[in-house]
Design brief:
This protein is of the alpha+beta class and 614 residues long. It contains 21 helices and 22 strands. The strands form 4 sheets. It has a 9-stranded mixed sheet with strand order 1-6-5-4-7-3-2-8-9, covered by helices on one side. A 5-stranded mixed sheet has the order 10-11-14-12-13, with helices on both faces. The N and C termini lie far apart (95 Å). The protein binds adenosine-5'-diphosphate and magnesium ion. Adenosine-5'-diphosphate binds next to α2.
Length: 614
């Protein structure tokens, strides 16, 4: 049998290009990635051996051994884990199965940031070895198999596969030929602290083997989460977090707890300080890793935690679940759903505590993950109330406000929680819909998160105050009605009748506005009609083709409206028909709606400009 030469999948080729030709600040992360792969391989074997004991055979102490050779400029990393077959070598080290790779490449190409920070996140950890390697040889024997393969590559477009007798009896041995500029990694004093840092939390011994065959354990070899809280430093938590998450930030919060009693388990959960790239990708799943009595089982049990907590990293280690059960049956184990409930409660308790005691810190969390958590309002009715309470909003008066605070601060006569939704806060603040609310000093929630449109109609009220969109129907503002003089009333009625007739093809109705102070007119959606903002959103996504007829509201105190009334009464102005259309069109534009007849709109504006100069 001879060597086969194969090409990397195109995406891998691109990643290798980036990895080998860009400058990284943090080259040493290749060690973290390879040690973590070796540790994963041992976890996988431990799990497989639960049902197939012979896989462990005589070699029962799962471990990783690292050695180096100054003369040949080589580092060797060896594990006695699950190993890889020929096909697995080809698939795992020649392609990227993960979706989102294209996204990753775009991000790196467009981003100034240190790209090595993204490598772990995108699951391309192995390839980071080419930051320091001129050649990599991977000798591997799959557990239970008698044949071994050598995968070899210099990190250009190709890799080779050759049958070999030099592989370990089980597991994987990776020999790295260091580039000249990376030969510092053969320096023991430099290598050891890095290895310790990257492996101290791992649940297996990491050995360092010196040239005279002496083995020395570098890490403590005890799963971090199983240790006493008081024996763990912040640095160790951070290291563990970065290792399992692939993120490079400090965790925003570490939640480490032990549940005892009917259900015993340990939880070590990290809330990241920044969102990961895949937060809103449809295929993203929860990231908690399930262990049973220290043995890694799976990170693929959706039932372990609700999807709206998909940004969390961490592990759950159960004392009660049976070890020798398959992932598939575990999924339906009632203990899983009980653990789920208890973790969720614990998390909400923790979040509520931080929201109350450290509001500024809480806002950082909310800005990152608020829109994800809010999905729970409609997907998890049991937790709805808690999530609504934890939600924070920007309002006219405050950058961050809870519904509790909003309702406590509102005037006694106010009946509703008013909100206005749209694309950005600055635009919303200038909306004509807010004018009389501003005058009356009534606060309004300014919503820019599309998810709010989904849950508000479901929740409907908070502490018995209903939500009300300020672009929708009658605002029912608390007000003293001043009596209107009857001839003024007649004049405005005449204007309304006239506008209705002129604009009959474009609008549903014309009404006197109670929400305007400075603008002459605005459009609103009638009660029962689709909200203007939702309609715009759906239209942008191509999910809505029909146009809705809106209601035109006019401001009876505005000079323009008063002048138009006069003009109608005296039948004087020659261009007044044009004004009807312009009044409507400018109101539409400010709402982000399209003008229905752009050609005529532009003609009218030009005419107006000419009149202005005369
Ligand atoms: P990830 O670890 O995120 O899956 P990597 O690029 O680090 O991505 O590794 C790719 C895959 O290669 C792993 O998922 C694993 O299947 C395989 N692999 C890498 N190193 C080893 C090893 N030492 N033993 C067994 N399999 C390995
Ligand atoms: Mg990896």
């Amino acid at each position: 049998m001879t060597t086969e030469n194969l090409s990397f999948q195109a995406e891998v080729g691109k990643i290798l290009q980036l990895v080998t030709h860009s400058l990284y600040k943090d080259k040493q992360i290749f060690l973290r990635e390879l040690i973590s792969n070796a540790s994963d391989a041992c976890d996988k074997l431990r799990y497989a051996a639960l049902t197939e004991k012979t896989l462990l055979e005589a070699d029962t102490e799962l471990n990783v051994t690292i050695s180096m050779n100054k003369d040949t400029q080589q580092i060797t990393i060896q594990d006695n884990g699950i190993g890889m077959s020929k096909k697995e070598l080809t698939d795992n080290l020649g392609t990227i199965a993960r979706s989102g790779t294209a996204n990753f490449l775009d991000k790196i190409a467009t981003q100034e940031a240190d790209s090595s920070k993204l490598i772990g996140q995108f699951g391309v950890g192995f390839y980071s070895v080419f930051m320091v390697a001129s050649k990599v040889d991977v000798y591997s024997t799959k557990a239970g198999s008698k044949t071994s393969w050598l995968w070899s590559s210099t990190g250009s477009e190709k890799f080779s596969l050759t049958p070999t007798k030099l592989a370990p009896a089980r597991g994987t041995k990776i020999i790295i030929d260091l580039k000249n500029e990376s030969k510092e990694y053969t320096d023991i004093s430099k290598l050891k602290p890095i290895i310790k840092k990257y492996s101290d939390h791992l649940n297996l011994p990491i050995y360092f083997e010196s040239s005279n065959d002496e083995k020395e354990q570098v890490n403590s070899g005890m799963a971090l989460w199983a240790r006493q809280k008081k024996d763990i430093t912040q640095e160790q938590y951070k290291e563990f977090y970065q290792n399992i998450s692939g993120q490079f930030d400090e965790p925003w919060q570490v939640i480490h707890f032990q549940a005892e009693g009917q259900l015993s388990y340990i939880g070590l959960i990290f809330i990241p300080a920044s969102p990961a790239y895949d937060l809103f990708m449809p295929e993203i799943k929860n990231k908690l890793k399930l262990h049973v009595r220290r043995v890694y089982i799976t990170d693929d049990i959706e039932e372990l935690i609700p999807n709206y907590f998909r940004f969390l990293h961490g592990i759950i280690d159960s004392e009660d679940l049976p070890l020798n059960v398959s992932r598939e049956t575990l999924q339906f184990n009632p203990m899983i759903s009980r653990i789920n409930k208890r973790i969720v409660n614990q998390l909400f308790k923790e979040l509520a505590k931080i929201a109350e005691k450290e509001p500024e810190k809480y806002i950082l969390f909310w800005n990152n993950f608020g829109s994800v958590i809010k999905e729970g309002i409609y997907t998890d009715p049991d937790q709805r109330e808690k999530i609504v309470k934890l939600s924070r909003f920007t309002s006219l008066k405050k950058e961050s406000i809870s519904l509790e605070e909003y309702t406590l601060k509102m005037p006694k006569k106010q009946k509703y929680i008013y909100y206005l939704s749209g694309q950005n806060i600055a635009e919303l603040k200038n909306s004509p819909h807010l004018e009389s609310l501003k005058e009356k000093k009534i606060d309004v929630l300014l919503l820019t998160d599309p998810v709010d449109e989904v849950w508000i109609p479901i929740v409907n009220n908070f502490n018995e105050f209903e939500f009300k969109s300020v672009t929708h129907g009658d605002l029912e503002l608390p007000s003293k009605n001043k009596a209107e003089k009857s001839d003024e009333k007649n004049d405005i009625d005449a204007l309304i009748v006239w506008l209705k007739e002129k604009l009959s093809t474009e609008i549903k109705d014309v009404r006197i506005s109670k929400r305007l102070a400075d603008s002459p007119a605005c459009i609103i959606s009638d009660d029962g009609d689709l909200d203007i903002n939702i309609a715009n959103m759906l239209r942008e996504r191509g999910q809505l083709n029909e146009d809705f007829k809106r209601v035109l509201e006019i401001n009876p105190n505005h000079q323009l409206i008063l002048k138009m009334q006069k003009s109608i009464k005296n039948k004087k102005s020659k261009n007044i028909d044009d004004l009807a259309f312009l009044l409507l069109d400018q109101a539409k534009l400010i709402e982000g709606e399209k003008v229905s007849d752009l050609g005529n709109f532009s003609k009218r504006i030009v005419q107006l400009m000419q009149d202005y100069i005369e």
